[in-house]
Design brief:
The protein has 242 residues and is α+β, with helices and mostly antiparallel strands. The protein is built from seven helices and ten strands. A six-stranded antiparallel sheet has the order 6-5-4-3-9-10, with no helix packed on it. The protein has a four-stranded antiparallel sheet with strand order 1-2-8-7. The longest helix has 22 residues. The chain is globular, with a radius of gyration of 30 Å.
Length: 242
């Protein structure tokens, strides 16, 4: 960042020296025979090298690089960890009040047939766009049957609660209780959106399932059936060496 700023300053200084030498030398009559319009064009052409680095950074899409969850079944809470491709700015906004960077989870506590819903009785909305309001993350109902216009909710339902967050460079983490998430068994799914000034730039979908181990008796029976099947399909005359 400091190197880019130094290069931009150096380019600006070089541009000014060049213009000064041109405007005070015989080159002016040759290069700008028709006066000020050509000089203005020349200045605009050279000044492109001095554009601020922040303009280029602002044009870069805000993307999700990695995401993870840590499920604490003992304390019945889930920690969410998301890493972006740049340190997010959750507080600056455009003229419409939309934050420069934001994220939003559609958390489905009961995904059916490996499908994660965007709204429903078991779906909550984890509202990153509202961080700028009170420096925490509201968790809202995904449905709003009353039609009430909750402040800053953008049409989503009533807030079930708010959670604090930690931001370390490009990585944000926060922990929510299962009660806030409508969660009960540690099996869930979510859609995660990255947003830049209200525009969707990136999305991911995740489903967590828990494999339930078979009881020892059933596991042994299944193994015995598998061995029997192998014995039945083995061609006659085939002997197994030990």
């Amino acid at each position: 960042m400091h190197l880019d700023a130094t290069l931009a300053s150096a380019a600006a200084a070089a541009t000014m020296l060049l213009l000064r030498s041109v405007c005070s030398s015989p080159m002016r009559a040759t290069m700008f025979p028709r006066g000020l319009p050509y000089l203005a064009f020349f200045i605009a052409l050279i000044s492109t090298v001095t554009l601020p680095v922040d303009i280029a950074r602002a044009a870069r899409a805000f993307d999700i690089v990695a995401h993870d969850v840590e499920v604490d079944e003992v304390n019945q809470q889930t920690t969410f960890i998301v890493t972006f491709n740049q340190p997010p700015d959750f507080f600056s906004t455009n003229e419409l009040g939309q934050p420069d960077n934001a994220f939003q989870f559609f958390f489905d506590a009961e995904p059916a047939d490996d499908q994660v819903d965007f709204a429903g009785d078991d779906v909550v909305i984890i509202r990153g766009p509202e961080i700028r309001v009170s420096n925490d993350i509201p968790i809202r109902e995904s449905i709003n049957p009353s039609g009430q216009d909750f402040p800053n909710a953008e049409g989503w339902g009533e807030a079930r609660g708010h959670v604090d967050f930690d931001l370390d460079g490009p990585t944000i983490s926060f922990t929510a209780s299962w009660d806030l998430l409508h969660e009960s068994d540690g099996q869930f799914g979510y859609h995660l959106f990255a947003l830049q000034r209200g525009e969707l730039t990136n999305e991911v979908t995740f489903i967590r399932r828990i494999s339930v181990p078979l009881p020892p008796a059933l596991l042994g029976g299944a193994f015995g059936l598998a061995c029997l099947a192998v014995h039945l399909v083995r061609p006659r005359g085939e002997h197994r060496r030990i």
